[in-house]
Amino acid sequence: xxxxxxxxxxxxxxxxxxxxxxxxxxxxxxxxxxxxxxxxxxxxxxxxxxxxxxxxxxxxxxxxxxxxxxxxxxxxxxxxxxxxxxxxxxxxxxxxxxxxxxxxxxxxxxxxxxxxxxxxxxxxxxxxxxxxxxxxxxxxxxxxxxxxxxxxxxxxxxxxxxxxxxxxxxxxxxxxxxxxxxxxxxxxxxxxxxxxxxxxxxxxxxxxxxxxxxxxxxxxxxxxxxxxxxxxxxxxxxxxxxxxxxxxxxxxxxxxxxxxxxxxxxxxxxxxxxxxxxxxxxxxxxxxxxxxxxxxxxxxxxxxxxxxxxxxxxxxxxxxxxxxxxxxxxxxxxxxxxxxxxxxxxxxxxxxxxxxxxxxxxxxxxxxxxxxxxxxxxxxxxxxxxxxxxxxxxxxxxxxxxxxxxxxxxxxxxxxxxxxxxxxxxxxxxxxxxxxxxxxxxxxxxxxxxxxxxxxxxxxxxxxxxxxxxxxxxxxxxxxxxxxxxxxxxxxxxxxxxxxxxxxxxxxxxxxxxxxxxxxxxxxxxxxxxxx
Length: 532
Description:
Distance between the termini: 116 Å
Structural class: mainly alpha
Helix content: over 70%
Shape: rod-shaped
Strand content: under 5%
Radius of gyration: 65 Å
Order of helices and strands: HHHHHHHHHHH
Number of strands: 0
Largest sheet: none
């Protein structure tokens, strides 16, 4: 091979001590020429090598651009995904917090309304004692004295707030479901991205390059080495082809310098490509016998090595094809990953620019509605509690009224006792006075003139007790004073006061049974204990 590669440039400088093939037949030289011509078909391998180097260089350039773009987008995707899931977490936190607070508010309202309804039911169940009402009136409960319009209006207002909150919450939940669908689509896109990356990694692993998806970018750094290897092999192939061309030129030269070989050389080389036979028509330089014999020695030696050079060129092109395949696999893998990355980026860009603002806005709208309605719920809860306290106070007041009636009856009984005792004492005094007056008249009446004192013969004064309604005493006293001024001195007068004579016009106090009073007292005590 060394001889073949250097023969075209140095065969005349070889030592003349080599054995000289004297009288080499023209037929053998023509055979060498034909073999050398056939070896020149290796130019197709060299051209293929040039194509491989050019394509590999283009693939490297494309891979560098694609890898840089993919790496940049991937870094941006990580930030976008992190931001996207943070937004979803915040939206879910608003929704979850709103649901919990709304549920708690509804529970509080339901509890307060249940207490109010319970109190109203007690009012319906509590029948006003007949002694409190006119005789001709139908039976009434405490509820008949309550106006429930305030409760109804409050219920309508609260229902409106609940409906508005439910609508806002329903809109948010619908928005969140759509958001979750978007995240599901995003996860599908990411799954496709990971599948593409995994597939590319497996292909690279099979081809002998990177062994995992995380090493795809690292695989890019092997491309320049592969390209340099391809360039070196292609350069070696070019040198080998140059040696074959030099051997062919030597064969042509030898045939032309042999008697009768010019026409044969022209016939054999006539169909060669221009870049090969460009110098074949050049004029022959004069050559001595020694130079001729030296040329033949080199020719015979190189002819024996030409076939090995052809085989080496074939081996080299066979070596380049797998390397080039690795380059293409690396580039295609990067392209696949790039496409998957761009798909994820496009999906996220579309989501962020069109739909994500709506999801965020829906969460803000719910937060605004809930903030407003929560204040109304708190106000409504206070109103329900106030109404319940009012109606509870009504129940307490009614039971207290029963105890007050009992107290008044007790006072009336004490007054009646005082009046009975007083009336008895007044009757005794009256009888004593009548007896004394009769005795005085019997003893002294014959001696006293009848006109000395007009009242000498009158009966004793008597006291009458009248029942008067509260606040009427002052008017009755005024009338009695006027009547007393018209009466003659010594004439009996009427004393007024609250009393218990049957048929009088005093205060009418309902008569309640002991059990009825004790029940009212028990209810009051029970409410006091519950309140504490």
